Amino acid sequence: MFYVQIFYFLLVKSLLVHSESFTSITHLTYLFNTEVELAKQLESYLHEEYERLDRVEKFLNIIKDEIRQAQGKEENYFGNPINAYLFTKHLTVDWYGIEEIASRAISKDMGDNWIFPSFEDYTGSAIALMRLQDTYKLNTSELASGEISENFKSRKLTAVECYDLGRIAYTNKDFYHTLMWMQEALDQLEKDENKTSVNKVDILDHLAYATSQQGNLEHALAVTEEILNIVPDHVRAMNNKEYYEDLIRNQTSGS
Amino acid sequence: MFYVQIFYFLLVKSLLVHSESFTSITHLTYLFNTEVELAKQLESYLHEEYERLDRVEKFLNIIKDEIRQAQGKEENYFGNPINAYLFTKHLTVDWYGIEEIASRAISKDMGDNWIFPSFEDYTGSAIALMRLQDTYKLNTSELASGEISENFKSRKLTAVECYDLGRIAYTNKDFYHTLMWMQEALDQLEKDENKTSVNKVDILDHLAYATSQQGNLEHALAVTEEILNIVPDHVRAMNNKEYYEDLIRNQTSGS
Predict the structure, then answer these.
(1) Which residue of B has its CA nearest to A43?
(2) Signal peptide: which range, if any (chains A, B) (predicted)?
(3) What is the reported pLDDT for B109?
(4) Distance between CA atoms of residues A204 and A201, nearest Å
(5) Residue A151 pLDDT
(6) Which listed site, A122, A145, A181, B102, has its alpha carbon 20 to 30 Å from A245?
């Protein structure tokens, strides 16, 4: 108790004096708020940083997995157009996303010293895949599930990957393949555990447009009504619904 | 086997052609080296990043622990000069170290909006501690082990923290307290599990000089010889050994 009382007396009386600085308990208690705020800021900083690294790590695991499967048997691996497509996607669109959140140092060094596929390689590999699909009448579901061949295996495509393929066809005004891959995206979406990766309405939106472009107005209308079931105030879908109904009415009256 | 052969034929012949881009197996296999290198670079990037965040997290845990102990009972907590010293150290020297490896955004925001103790507050709190130590004849070991009082507890100081206190005394030409705290650093070093945090030779080096300044040449010589036992080619220690031996010889012959 002797020390306790002395400390208390000494410190409350601001006796921790040295030259111009002083560190009274009042002063320290005031500075203590800085520490409380610092802890908060560091906590949320760490949380964000760990999330960022988690994304980088997930990407790393995907490409490490790809390397394990392809290394030493590149011809077999890339012989499957799904693998060729996914590989090209990883080093183009996916890497652009990672590059932004990882170190600039890596990105600069990699960009200077290593050849990456171009964005045209990426769309090219998707279009080549669809061409093979036509030539050999490959079933989209089988292709998406990696089941086209014993020797040239690929993994299963996710809903978002099917959607990406559909998007490339769509951008290329290839509505025939847009239909196939958007339908496949829809089917995969039902099975996917992670349903947030692609929005069902986005798939249906592309599906409706591609269907109408392929001349099937009744189906385009049905898909549009499905969009409105999910999002009743979807403006484009409301307009399209009227538009398709008009077209169908005119077709019927014209025939 | 049908598809297999077709794919092989198609792809080896570079048939994955679209406009100007082409993605033959040869081309993909070439680009595959980029992926292998990318995986390596990302792996070491992640490793470094996790290490960096680990340091930030360790600091965060130290200050969170401090907050838990001090909050709501600030007067008791800061009533112990060891706590006042450690707290000030966390928000000055330790934070400067973390600031460099954490986000500039936090550091800027904190610096603009919150008051941190100054470096003088830091050395001031160490010197105040030593002054209290003299006034109330507090035993250094008891102080370092947090055992001076029931009501104003502090945690145990590590070897490096005792060394830091000794360094402040040393820089202040206060060799009396340098001796006390360097000796305490040495004792703690024997007990510390993490012996890499401070170098024994650095402690001995300060101890020898402070001892000689306090006039105990025989002990300064003994400590210097202990340095040479650890690092036989320690240049300053070799010179000091001769110097102390000369001084002792002259003292003896002069007396």
Answers:
(1) B60
(2) 1-19
(3) 82
(4) 5
(5) 67
(6) A181
Chain B: residue nearest A29 by CA? B74
Show Cβ contacts of residue B72 under 8 Å, excluding neighbours closer than 6 positions.
none
Closest listed residue to residue A211, CA positions, set A195, A191, A225, A197: A225
For residue A214, give both structure tokens. 């392929």
Interface of B with A in 97-156 (CB under 8 A): 98, 102-103, 106, 109-110, 114-118, 120-121, 123-125, 127-128, 132, 136, 138, 148-152
Do A116 and A87 touch, CB atoms closer than 8 A?
Answer: no
Over residues B59-86, the pLDDT tens digits come to 999 999 999 999 999 988 988 889 999 9
CA-CA distance, A179 to B84, in Å (whole number)? 70
Which residues, at least 6 apart from B113, have a Cβ–Cβ distance to it below 8 Å?
none
Question: Cα–Cα distance between A15 and B120 in angstroms, integer?
Answer: 15
Highest averaged pLDDT of the listed ranges A2-11, A144-153, A173-182? A173-182
Give the model's confidence band at A170: pLDDT under 50 very low, under 70 low, under 90 confident, else very high. very high
DSSP state of A214: T
Cα distances (angstroms) measured from residue B231 to each of A27, A70, A238, B70: 45, 53, 84, 43
By the 8 A CB rule, do A27 and B104 touch? Answer: no
Q: How far is CA B20 from each of CA A120, A128, B13, rounded to the nearest angstrom?
A: 8, 13, 16
- Give the domain ranges of chain A: 43-156, 158-255
Q: Which CATH class is domain A158-255?
A: mainly alpha
Does B152 contact A3 at a Cβ distance shorter than 8 Å?
yes
**Cβ separation of A116 and B34 shorter than 8 Å?**
yes
Helices (H), chain B: 2-12, 25-70, 74-79, 81-89, 95-101, 104-113, 119-135, 140-144, 159-171, 175-191, 200-213, 217-230, 235-254
Interchain CB contact of B5 with A (< 8 Å): no
Between CA B155 and CA A41 the distance in angstroms is 25
Residues in A closer than 8 angstroms to B78, CB to CB, are 11, 25, 28-29
- Which amino acid is present at A48? E
CA A188 to chain centre: 15
Strand partners of residue B22: B17
Asked if A79 has any chain B CB less than 8 Å from its own CB, the reply is: yes
